[in-house]
Amino acid sequence: MPLRKLAHLTLLALGLLTALAVLFVAQLRFNYNFNDFYPAGDPDLDYYMQYSGRFGNDNDYVLLGLEAPAGQTVFEPRFLTKVDSLTRFIQQRRHVTQVSSPTNAVNPVVEGLGVFNVPYLHPQDPSRRAQDSALVYRTPGLVGNLISQDARAATILFQTSPNLSKPPGDSLLTAVRAELQRQGFAENQYHLAGKMVAQSVFVDRLQVELMVFMSLSVVLVTGLLWLTFRTWWGVVLPLVVVLGAIVWGLGLMSACGISIDLMTALLPVMLFVVGMSDTIHIITRYVTELGYGASKKDSLRIALKESGFGSGLSALTTSIGFFTLMTSTIRPIYNFGLFTGIAVLLTFALSFTLLPAMLVLLGKPQLRVPRAEGHSWDGVLGRMFRVVLVRRHWVVAISALVLVLSVASASRIRINSALLDDLSKNDPVKLDFKFFERQFAGVRPFELDLKPAPGRSIYDLAVLRQTEKIEGYLHTTYGLNFVASPVTLIKSVRKALNGGLLAEYRLPDSEAELQRLTRKVKLFRKKPEFRALALPDGSEGRLTGRMPDVGSIRADKLNADLRRYLRASIDSTVLRTRLTGSANLIDKNNENLTLNMITGMSIDIVMVTLIVLLLFRSLRMTLVVLVPNLVPILIVAGVMGAAGVSMKVSTSIIFTIAFGIAVDDTIHFISKLKLVLLEEPSLFRAVRKTYLMAGKAVIVTSLILVGGFSTLIFSSFDGTFYVGLLIGLTLLFGVVAELTLLPILILAFYRHRPKEIRQPVPALGG
C-alpha cells in the first residue's frame, strides 16, 4: 500500500478514536472525596464503616465561628439575636440534620412526667446577662465548645447528611454565606471549617489550576520546541501527538467512571511534559538525517528504526514507574498511577502512528544548510564529551561527595501529615481551621468505640466509671478539648432529675440510683445527641471528641500512649475499647507510605535491571545504568531533608515517578549505543558517537520536562508544589548525571566484545 494512502487511513482511524474519547471527556467531573484517602482494604477501614453506620460519620459537620464586634463579648443581646437568627436559618436548610448553638443550648429539667428545656441564654432579656454568662462558664461542655474561653467568639455547629456531595454542599454554604452577609457579618468576622468546606474549595481550585498549569505548560513547551527545531511543524506535530494522548487518557478515565481529584488532576500536565520525549527523539533524529542530506523517506525510516527500540523501552519503564503507584492503598494515588501509566503507553502508540503519518503527508522540510560533515550540535556535544573525560576524576569525586552529604541529609526526612496538609500555612481555609483550634476545641475528630464485656450494658455503673476514667485521661494527658460519651448522657439525666443543678452533674453513687436514672433515659432517647452516643439496647457506646490537628507524628505517639494506658488501667473484663475514626485512618496511611515507596522503587529498579540485562547481558552494565539514575533521587532526598519537607501522601509519589521518568534518557542512550556497537568496533568511538546522536534529544527533553514540572510550583496546594519542584530538581540533576557520569561509567566498567561488523547505515557524522 502506498505510504500516503496508509497515512490517510491511519489519520482517519485515529480521528474516529479521538472523537469517541472527546465524548467521554465531556462527561468528566471534578471531585474531592475525603473518604477516598482512607487506606483501601484495611481492616480498620471496614471497622470504621460499620461503626459509622451505627453512630454516624465523625466529619459530616460544619463549624461556623462568629466573632463579636470589637470591644464586645458574645453575651451582648444584639450579637446573640443575630446568632439565634442564623441558628434558625441553618436549621431550616435542606441536608442539615442537627444544629448546636449557644442560643439553642438548653439545660433540661425533669418535673413530674415532663421534661422542660431551660435555655442557658436569654437574648431578649438583657437583665439576665450576668446570670446567664456565669451559668455558662460553670456548665461543662459549653466554654471551649460553643463559646470561646475569652467570650469573644461563638460557634454554630451543624451536622449534615452523610457524605454530602459537592453540589448540594456548595448550595448550603452559599446560602449560609448570603445569610451572614444579610445579618451584617463582614468576611473577617466569620470562619467556616469542616470536610464540606475543604471539599468545596479543593474542587474549585482543581478546576482553575488544571487550566493554569496546562496553559503554562503549552506556552513553555511551545517556546522550547521552537528554539529547538525553528519550524512550525516541529512545534505543532509534538503538540498534536501529546494533546491527543491526553484526550485518550482522560477519555479512558471517564469511561471507567473515575473523576478528576487532587491526584488525577496532575495527569494532563504530567503526560504533556513526559509524553514529549518520544516525539522529540523521533523528530530530532529525522531532522539530523535530513541535515546530513538523506532523503525524506530514508530519514523517516532511520528515525523510526533507531528511535523505536529505545522509545518502546523508555515508554515501558516510564509506565512501570506510574504503575508501581498501584501498590498504594490510597485510591486517588492508585487511579493516578494506573491511568497515567496507560496514557504513557498511548502516547508511545501515537508517536509511532500519528506522528509518522503527519510527517509523510507534509512536504520535505527546507533546512537552512544541509551539512555533510555534521550538525551544529555536534561541536558543542563533542567539546562537552571531551571535557567530561578529561575531568573524569573530578566528576567522580564531586559526585561521591554530594552523594554522601545527600544520604546524611536524607536521614532527617520524617513521615508526617495533617488533615489540611495540601494547603499552605497562609491559605484562608487553613487560617479558618486554625481559628477553631485557637479559640475552640479544634477540628481534628477523635473516636473510641466502647463495648461492654458480655453480660454487661453500656449503662452499668462499672462500665460508666471505666469510661469516665478514660475521659479524664483524654482531657488531661491526650489533649482532647471536648469529650462526649454515655457518661455525658447519664450525668445530664441525673442533673435534669435534680432540678438542673450543676452540682448534680456527676455519676450516681450506687447501682440502685443508676437503675432509677436508666429508666428515665427513655425520656431523652429521641434526642439526636443520645442516639449518637449509645445504641438503644445499651450494647455499645461511642466516645467522641475534638482536638487541634497535631500532625501524624504527634498523633501516633499520643495513640501509642493511649493504647498502653488502656491496657494497663482499664479492666477489659468490664469494658473493651477500640480506637477508630477518620483521623485515625488518615494517620494509618503514613504506616504504608514508606512500604509503598520502597515497593514501587524496587519494582522500577528490577524492571530496569532486566531490560539492561536483556540488552547487554552484563551485570556491570546494569550498575552503570542504575547509578546515574539513583544519584539524582538521593540528592533530592537530601534536599528534602535539608529543607525540612516531610514525607506525606502527596510527596510519597515523587521518587517513584522521578526514577521512572529520569531513566528514560538512559534507556534511549544505551539502546542507541547497542545499535552503534553493531557498526563500531571501538567502545570509545561508539560511546562518543552515541553521545553526539542522543545528546541533543536528552538535553531538549530534559529541559521540557524540568520546565513542564516547574509550572506546578505555582499551585496553592503544597503537595502539588513539591511534586513540581522536587521532580523538576530530580530531572535536572538527572540530565547532568546522564551527560557526565554515564559515559565515564560505561567506558570504565563495560567490557565490549566486538562482533563482526555489519554493513553500516548511512553516515551520521561525528
UniProtKB/TrEMBL annotation:
Keyword line: Cell membrane, Membrane, Transmembrane, Transmembrane helix
Matching Gene3D superfamilies: Multidrug efflux transporter AcrB transmembrane domain (1.20.1640.10)
Segments passing through the bilayer: 210-229, 236-260, 266-287, 308-330, 336-362, 393-411, 593-616, 623-643, 649-670, 691-715, 721-750
Entry membrane topology: Multi-pass membrane protein
Domain SSD: 239-361
InterPro entries: MMPL_dom, Mycobact_MmpL, SSD
Record PROSITE patterns: SSD
Compartments in which it is found: Cell membrane
PANTHER family registered for this protein in UniProt: MEMBRANE PROTEIN MJ1562-RELATED, MEMBRANE PROTEIN YDFJ
Designated name of the protein: SSD domain-containing protein
Protein species of origin: Hymenobacter glacieicola
